[in-house]
Amino acid sequence: MKQLNQWLGLALLSVFTLISCSKEESGSGSGKLALSAKSTTSASTSSKAGTTSKSVAEGIEITDFVINLVEFELEIDVEELEMEDDQNEDWDDDGYFDFEDEIELEGPFTLDLMAGQISFLNVTVPNGRYEELEFKINKSKDVNSEIFDKSVLIKGFVNDVPFIFWHDFMDEIEIDFEDPTVDVTISNNTENLVIDFNLSLLFNSVSGIDLSGATDGNNDGIIEISPRDEDGNNDLAQIIRNKMKDIIDLLED
């Protein structure tokens, strides 16, 4: 009987070891995803009317850039997903790790991107290779926020005249590394990623948007650019909104 018990114990240990190895091989386990965001401008700074501004193009300086981000998703690498016999228990079976799986990914995150690089999300993520990061830019619902009922707000100067741009759009943004062969890889590690909003690409007369034609239609001393302004810049607001997708990059920190 003693020998039988020893044999059963060894058999159970072998089965447990086999199951553990199988789980490791099938991609179980988790790591951390740490997300931060920043804005990129040229190096020069100046002071106007008691505020610090950063130059992004000739005659264009930015003092404020606030944006509201929600509902982040990581799209799992399709080839890796096909190799898995079973889905990871930490997510549902739609091929994404997102706000439906983990509430911390939902947000919202209202970010003041002129304050430097901001770390705003640190969440446990199942091990795996992820092809891209997706998130939404959407209106803030915080009545105490500077961008309540807005999704983005940018302030600055156009040839020394103050301007304000805001919009209330909702857009889904998909970003990846410049090299399409590089994935976001989580393997019992912490992956640090940076969402970079390059304002120098957004506002320039060569490949971006030239603000020199923006007008102060109501002559109140401020150039207003929005979907509902009185200065006659509504079409320009839509052009800026469309261009914003093109100036967002994903970087490794």
Automatic annotation (TrEMBL):
Top-level taxonomic group: Bacteria
Annotated PROSITE patterns: PROKAR_LIPOPROTEIN (PS51257)
Full protein name: DUF4382 domain-containing protein
Native source species: Sediminicola luteus
